[in-house]
């Protein structure tokens, strides 16, 4: 599979496709004509330097920001999200950079926050929620947590990330988005989260993971997409890239190494030039 065309033809195999997404905040053009394909059962890594527009793009897919232009296609059909709830209803769940867990609440309470199950319409269905939370964590092979009744304040960074991911996948997720999931983690915890990301894709979910850690990215991603100053400058199979070409794309928006490869008989991974220097 390749994204060789610069025409924005939609990949029929993609669960989510963005075409020509624009987003500005007043005079700040955060995203310009962004195309992106996110297939099921694969890990797609979204890369870019600080300020490239990664978080804005994620918030647009999550229904937090409305795009100013372009199209979002879900399972091939155009969709419009006005709220995060509408994105969630389709099966899009996002683990944001700050995780947004409540420290004083336990794991079960966090996983059901705002979506508590009730008995007789009044009492919290504690047993039921506890079982569902435990089953979800076990299904993700998250085994290091001692008790699902411990407050999340007592968890390690990797465990917190796991709880946030479990909360995201518990609701019929088809696409899980993670913004910098390993940014604050040590080596062992990073390992745990990368394994978890891999398992999600192996279960058939589409995973979109934002990172600027190239070691992590090359370890876990099937596909790479690189943003530079709000434009998508390259995307394709991870095997079409090497670390040097990704660094060049992230820092300059182009890569000699990649374009020379793209002139050979393998399909080009680059889908767009960085915009002819007309950055607004
Ligand atoms: N709510 C906002 N209002 C104004 N500008 C914003 C807002 N959110 C992001 N930006 C700008 O959009 C650009 C992309 O930001 P962001 O997506 O957070 O970058 P990153 O790739 O580091 O996640 C930056 O120039 C940032 O300052
Ligand atoms: Mg960010």
Structural class: alpha/beta
Number of helices: 9
**Ligand types:** adenosine-5'-diphosphate, magnesium ion
Largest sheet: 6 strands, mixed
Q: Could you give the order of the helices and strands?
A: EEEHEEHEHEEHHEHEHEEHH
The CATH superfamily of the largest domain bears the name P-loop containing nucleotide triphosphate hydrolases
Q: Report the count of strand segments.
A: 12
End-to-end separation in angstroms reads 33 Å
Rg measurement, Å: 19 Å
User: What count of domains describes the coordinates?
Assistant: 2
Key terms:
globular, 31% helix, 25% strand, disordered N terminus, 6-stranded mixed beta sheet, 280 residues, 9 helices, 4-stranded antiparallel beta sheet, binds adenosine-5'-diphosphate, alpha/beta, binds magnesium ion, Rossmann fold
Explain this structure to me?
The chain is built from nine helices and twelve strands. It has helices at 54-61, 84-90, 107-111, 126-139, 157-169, 187-202, 214-220, 243-252, 256-262, and strands at residues 14-25, 28-39, 43-47, 69-74, 77-79, 92-95, 118-119, 123-124, 175-179, 206-211, 223-228, 231-237. Strand 4 (69-74) and strand 5 (77-79) form a beta hairpin. It is globular, with a radius of gyration of 19 Å. Mean pLDDT is 85; it is low at 1-7, 260-268 and 273-280.
């Amino acid at each position: 599979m390749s994204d060789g065309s610069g025409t924005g033809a939609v990949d029929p195999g993609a669960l989510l496709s963005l075409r020509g997404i624009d987003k500005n905040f007043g005079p700040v053009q955060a995203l310009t004509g962004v195309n992106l394909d996110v297939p099921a059962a694969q890990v797609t890594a979204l890369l870019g330097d600080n300020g490239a527009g990664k978080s804005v793009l994620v918030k647009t897919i999550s229904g937090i920001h409305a795009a100013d232009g372009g199209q979002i296609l879900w399972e091939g059909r155009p969709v419009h999200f006005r709220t995060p709830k509408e994105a969630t209803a389709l099966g899009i769940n996002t683990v944001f950079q700050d995780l947004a867990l409540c420290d004083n609440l336990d794991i079960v309470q966090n996983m059901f926050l705002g979506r508590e199950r009730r008995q007789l319409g009044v009492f919290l269905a504690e047993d039921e929620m506890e079982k569902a939370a435990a089953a979800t964590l076990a299904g993700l092979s998250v085994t290091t947590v001692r008790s699902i009744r411990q407050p999340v304040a007592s968890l390690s960074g990797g465990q917190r990330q796991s709880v946030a991911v479990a909360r995201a996948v518990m609701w019929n997720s088809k696409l899980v988005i993670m913004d910098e999931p390993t940014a604050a983690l040590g080596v062992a915890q990073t390992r745990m989260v990368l394994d978890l990301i891999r398992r999600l894709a192996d279960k058939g979910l589409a995973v979109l993971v934002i990172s600027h850690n190239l070691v992590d990215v090359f370890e876990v991603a099937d596909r790479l997409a690189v943003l530079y100053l709000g434009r998508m400058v390259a995307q394709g199979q991870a095997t079409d890239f090497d670390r040097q070409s990704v660094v060049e794309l992230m820092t300059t928006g182009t890569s000699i190494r990649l374009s020379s490869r793209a002139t050979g008989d393998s399909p080009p991974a680059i889908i767009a030039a960085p915009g002819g220097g007309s950055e607004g």
